[in-house]
Fold:
Amino acid sequence: MKADHCKADPRGVLTGTHFIDGDHACCEGALAAGARFAAGYPITPSTEVVERFASRVPTVGGTFIQMEDELAASITLQGAVWGGAKAFTVTSGPGFSLMMEHIGYAAMTETPCVFVDVQRGGPSTGLPTLPAQADMMQARWGSHGDYEIIALCPNSPQECFDLTIKAFNFAEEFRVPVMFMMDEVVGHMTEKVVIPPADQIEVFPRKHTHKSVEDYLPYGTNGGQVPEMAHAGEGYNFHVTGLTHDERGYPNMTPPVQDKLVRRLQNKIRAAADRISLFEEEQLEGADVVVVSYGITSRVAQRAIEAARKSGLRVGKLRLITAWPFPEKKIRELAAKVKSFVVPELNLGQMVREVERAAAGKARTFAVSHAGGGVHRPEDILKVIVEASRCQTA
Amino acid sequence: MAEGRVSIVVEHCKACGFCVEFCPTHVLELSSAFNSKGYHPPHAVHPERCSGCDLCGMYCPDFAIYATKVAPGKERDK
Amino acid sequence: MSDSLITDIVNAGVNPVDQILRTDRMPHIWCPGCCIGTTVNSFARALIDSKIDLGSLALVSGIGCTGRVAGYVKLDSFHTTHGRAIPFATGLKLANPKLNVVVYSGDGDLSAIGGNHLIHAARRNIDLKVICVNNLIYAMTGGQTAPTTPGHSITSTNPYGTFEPSFNLPHLVEAAGAVYVARWTTFHVRQLARSISEAFQKKGFSFIEVISPCPTLYQRRNKLGDGLDTMKYYKEKSKVRHGAPTGEVGLTMTGEIIVGKFVDRDRPDYQTMMRSQYCESLGEKFVEQEEMVCS
Structure:
């Protein structure tokens, strides 16, 4: 255990073995991670997360508020963070679109928080109760300007619990908004979820400053990448703004200050990308084809991978747990060794572009696209694996 | 009448004229001189009339003027 | 005094409002004759007179000219996104109920892009003190029509005169549930300070509208003179009518301005209602929210 971690507050931890869906498991993960504030607006298929939070939080000590819209929810939670809370909001596509400005605000003001997006089919109102994975690029690029976020993709209710804690921990460690990219199937799938005792759950505490009021610089990093935080009401009299700002937090709209700030916001994530990039790998050694997948699609792909192996193909699996920052180093290394990548996803081609970019022509890339509303048929993925295994190396 | 002293932060003045207009004892006038931004700040033409009520300070949008009470007998203006 | 350049501080002392200002950021960006700074004087005076603990005070602004207030006050201050000062302040207040939370923003920010949050925060009776500087226009962006722009005004987006009916903000927030509603102009500096002090004594959603000139964009385009002319108009045309029915206090371009304290009533605020509902429904299972500070 790292010294900068502490243990979960047992009051939020529902230790035991449960049979719950991904949405409920996500809520339990948030409570275990120390979240005591949520602001939300109802939207299918995500609402169960905050419904459970609304029912649980008054027995744990905290607040849930249902706001008038997602614009409000996504900034109310940030007010709560500056008031001292760990906070999150939960939504799905249309609401996620409305939250984009505040993802940028959280990135710019370095407000640690978690946005849960239980993805459904789009565009627009799309498929309210059916799955998709088509918000992946929006999660990365949806707000204007240059910034970095972290995005995690669970593929089971158990991971909805485990990775929600991870999402809060990353948010606190890097002072960044973390996108928790679920999908309708993972959200509504009911499975066994084991919640360990609180003393086995590591929680990253707020990077709270210990400096005196005189010495504290709200956005000073002292040579590091992540500034220390103060909360309102502690006497620091600090200023927070979405404008380009200097280390004092004062607006300073000049090119050198912009350059320094925006590069730091990017570098604090990029410099730690290897540590943030989580993935599950299987039989990558000697593989001709690597199937790159994430979320619910990784479970459908598993069938196809196993069928392909049975027919004698050398197929490796790379499951992205962290989608952003994209594990481009891993893909680059693999591209030098394998013939091709197969990327099934519930969209018409999003993460596959990243795979193709990182492969940089060293290996071929095959998309297995799906417009959403269901999951792939394993045989459709298998067909592309077979095709990919026969291709000439680029 | 209680005595007061008016202070003027010349460089912050934008010459709106509120202090001149609303001073109850008509202490101020806009100067013909300029500050470095090119505005005419006020100056006290009747400093002896200042009551220290600080209405000028309340009106000044630029935090560029304020008045304070001075104890009787103290020097009002340098 | 001679016609020479003068640069010194005449009679240097200490401006009483300096204690709540970030003096290292002065001079500010507001135009000559703009009265946002004047409202800040009244605000500062209210804080000093009511002996509010400045350490427990947080100020939240949105975007626009008035939105810049957050950057000029030496308080925990948040310059948020356009229209969202109220929901940000809501989160701040709910997470740390010990804070006194002030929302300080403009008419466009609070009543157009943030209009939905305004009425819902009033309905919920969130314990916020909202100071709305109403200059009847979008100023930062160059003088476009706002929901508060009186009929027939010339703006950059209604160059032939506005024709949309405007919002009467005291009426709107009273109907939505605010417990304290007052309006002053920037001529009424002492009355404004008193109203702000009174709002600090109230628990619940308080709303103070301050009518303020925008000499650069509103007064100039409408040939209404400069800041000083506008202050004289406020002095001449304002009528103090405490308790006036808010339905009767709508504004016109050059007519009478009804000012005063319109609403002062009591009803439980959001957190009081939340707590009593939980106590009633959950009994012993209810756990009080402790300080959320998670360091």
Remarks:
- The first strand of chain A starts at residue 6 and ends at 7.
